[in-house]
Amino acid sequence: MVSLRGVTGMSRVVLWARYRLRRSRAGCPQPRFSDQGAALDDRGYIWLVMDVRVVSIGALATHPLWGERSAVRTGHATCSLIRSGEASILVDPGLPGQVIAARLGERAGIEPDAITHVFLTSFKPETTRGLAAFDRATWWIHETERETVGVALAMEARRASESGDRELGETLAKDVALLRNCEAAPDELTGGVSLFPLPGVSPGMCGLIISEALGTTVICGDALATVEHLDQGQVLTPAADVDQARESFGEVVEIADWIVPGRDNLVANRGRRGAF
Fold first, then answer.
1. pLDDT one-digit tens code per residue, 41-55
2. Number of domains making up the chain
3. Which of 54, 69, 75, 140 has the smallest CB count inside 10 Å?
C-alpha cells in the first residue's frame, strides 16, 4: 500500500485520487473503511468522511447546448457547502445574500454566521452576488484569479473615469472592494480539501478536490459547467484559453468520481459510472 503521510496540500489529495483510480482500473479492491467512514491503509487512517452538499443549483444565462443564443435567465453559480471539523466552507455564493441565507437554512439548517470561509472558483457576478452576507467569514480565491481580475478591474475603472461613466465607475468600485477582501487561498483549505487549479475559462479559475472514503469529488466551477457539457465533452465558451480549458476539463473527468458542475447539480462522473 502506498502511504500518503508526509505529502501535503493539493499534491496529497490528487495523489490519493490517482491512487484510487489506478486500483480501480487494475481491478484491485479499494481501501477498507473504519466504522466512522474513514479510509484505512496498513499504517492508519487517511481521510475522514465530510459533509459535502449543494446549497443551490446554478444556471447559465444562455445555455448554448440547449440551442439558446441570447440570455433568457439570470445566470448564477452552483453554491456548495463543505463541512469538515470546525470548518464550514461555502463555495460560490452566486445568489443574492438574502436568498443564499434562506437556502442555507433549507439545505443545512445553519445561518450565514456559521460559515467560516467562502471560496470563489472565479470572480464575477455569477459567483459573488451573495458574498457580502458572509462578512464574518474569511474569503478565499486562487492567487492567479485575484491578480488577473484586479488588473482588469483597474483598467476598466480608468476607462470609466476617463469617459465620465459614473454608474460604471461605482459598480467597478464595489467589485474592487470585494476583491480586496479576498485572500489568496492556501493549497489545502482543510483536511482532505485542496485547491484544484482549472485555468482556461478564466486564467485563474480554480476548483476544489475533496477526497473522502467513498470517492473523490471535484467542485469545478465553470471549468465544467453543466451535465450537458460533461456528456458532450464541451467546454464553456467564450474562454480565455480554449486549449487550456479543454485540458482542465479532461483533468476533472480523469480524476473525479463525483462532479459539482459550475451551473448544475452534483452528478456521478459519467465515464466512471461502473464504479457505483
1. 444 444 455 789 999
2. 1
3. 69
